């Protein structure tokens, strides 16, 4: 089976827009913050943004799940926290959710 | 992706310039001194091929961890309906792990363009601060060198570079070299994951429908910065769960993120 190498114009457009936006954030700090001062208050707010967005994604997803997903999620948290290995956390999580769905 | 602690409490001292040899391989905690962090630095910052090579070599162990994410991203992108070429293109030009995984989570037909692009931008706003922290060193480079290097800036090689430069290093090309290592592994592992993802049958049989949740949980653990995150995170969670019931589509993600930002700004005490 050969890999799918198709490129849809809309997808390419969205990807390029994401790339541009991301580059603006990366280069913007270099360019802008040498010229203006961001208050520590705003800086603190910006620092919590990624975490806040990640829990915002997780919240509704987990609320919709059941005991199997909750149990597997707890296990993933434990593995990620103890080992810091994403790959291991994913493998354990996927295995746990399959096992728990069979039991619960 | 691992984000290192960026306690603004550290920004008073110039301790970074004195501490030697703590450019830890693991990308350990490095404080972002948004001010001029090279108080004790008299050597000029240079941009050499050797600097690129040193950055690359030092970043390879870290890049192996990044590759784990890359494989997961490739599989998720493929499941979301992106072709191998499209997923690879995204990794090659966006170069921002968490933002890409979130984009794939939001992917639908038709693509919610404003939401995907907007959320990715907001998630990446932290890079603005990270780029600013590098300014004391990058301002000695030519614009092409500096603005070219930041394209390859990711959490991991930023942390390594901060450690290197603040311990007295003068290799201005370190960010580029370490970034090239991240980029190569990130793009390569995306190809691997996207190709492998296409050969897998019914995803839920292997628990693959849970992989996205697992990835985000792992990201959350790496982003957790201690008890001070509790209030903004809890606020974001609450707003996200409520607005997922009230708002169409996936706007609850941005709503939750912005709630966390507002809460943190409101309760901040200098």
Walkthrough of the structure:
The complex is a heterodimer of chains A (104) and B (270). With 104 residues, chain A is mainly alpha-helical. Chain A contains four helices and no strands. Chain A has helices spanning 9-32, 40-64, 67-83, 86-103. In chain A, α3 packs antiparallel against α4 (86-103). Chain A is extended. The mean pLDDT of chain A is 89. Chain B is 64% helix and 0% strand. Chain B has helices at 15-18, 49-80, 84-94, 97-106, 113-123, 126-138, 143-149, 155-166, 174-198, 211-223, 230-246, 251-267. Chain B is mainly alpha-helical. The chains are: A mainly alpha (104), B mainly alpha (270). At the A-B interface, α1, α2, α3 and α4 of A face α2, α3, α4, α5 and α6 of B. Chain B: It is a multi-pass membrane protein. Chain B: It comes from Natronoarchaeum mannanilyticum. Chain B: Keywords: Cell membrane, Membrane, Transmembrane, Transmembrane helix, Transport. Chain B: Belongs to the AzlC family.
Considering the chains and any ligands shown, give keywords for the structure:
heterodimer, A: 104 residues, mainly alpha, B: 270 residues, 12 helices, globular
Extract low-pLDDT stretches of chain A. Answer: none
From the N-terminal CA to the C-terminal CA of chain B, the straight-line distance is: 28 Å
- Range of strand content of chain A: under 5%
- Mean pLDDT across the residues of chain B is 81
- How would you describe the shape of chain A? extended
């Amino acid at each position: 089976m050969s890999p799918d190498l198709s490129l849809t114009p809309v997808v390419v457009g969205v990807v390029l827009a994401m790339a541009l936006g991301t580059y603006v954030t990366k280069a913007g700090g270099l360019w802008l913050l040498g010229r203006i001062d961001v208050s520590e208050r705003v800086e603190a707010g910006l620092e919590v943004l990624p975490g806040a967005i990640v829990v915002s994604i997780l919240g509704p997803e987990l609320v919709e799940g059941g005991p199997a997903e909750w149990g597997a999620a707890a296990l993933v948290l434990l593995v990620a926290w103890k080992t810091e290995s994403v790959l291991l956390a994913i493998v354990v999580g996927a295995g746990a959710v399959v096992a728990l769905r069979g039991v619960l | 992706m691992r984000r290192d602690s960026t306690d603004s409490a550290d920004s008073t001292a110039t301790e970074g310039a004195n501490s030697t040899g703590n450019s830890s391989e693991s990308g350990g905690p490095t404080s972002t001194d948004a001010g001029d962090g090279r108080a004790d630095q008299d050597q000029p910052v240079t941009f050499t091929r050797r600097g690129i090579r040193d950055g690359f070599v030092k970043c390879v162990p870290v890049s192996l961890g990044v590759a784990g994410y890359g494989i997961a991203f490739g599989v998720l992108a493929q499941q979301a309906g992106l072709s191998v070429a499209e997923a690879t293109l995204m990794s090659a030009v966006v170069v921002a792990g968490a933002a890409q995984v979130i984009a794939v989570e939001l992917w639908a037909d038709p693509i919610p363009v404003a939401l995907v692009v907007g959320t990715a931008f907001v998630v990446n706003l932290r890079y603005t601060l990270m780029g600013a922290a590098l300014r004391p060193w990058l301002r000695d480079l030519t614009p092409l060198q500096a603005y070219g290097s930041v394209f390859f800036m990711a959490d991991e090689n930023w942390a390594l570079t901060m450690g290197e430069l603040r311990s007295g290093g003068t290799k201005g090309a370190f960010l580029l070299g370490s970034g090239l290592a991240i980029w190569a592994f990130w793009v390569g592992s995306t190809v691997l994951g996207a190709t492998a993802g296409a050969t897998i049958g019914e995803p839920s049989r292997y628990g693959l429908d849970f992989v996205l949740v697992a990835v985000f949980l792992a990201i959350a653990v790496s982003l957790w910065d201690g008890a001070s995150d509790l209030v903004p995170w809890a606020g974001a969670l609450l707003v996200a769960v409520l607005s997922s019931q009230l708002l169409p589509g996936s706007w609850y993600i941005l709503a939750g993120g912005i709630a966390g930002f507002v809460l943190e700004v409101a309760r901040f005490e200098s």
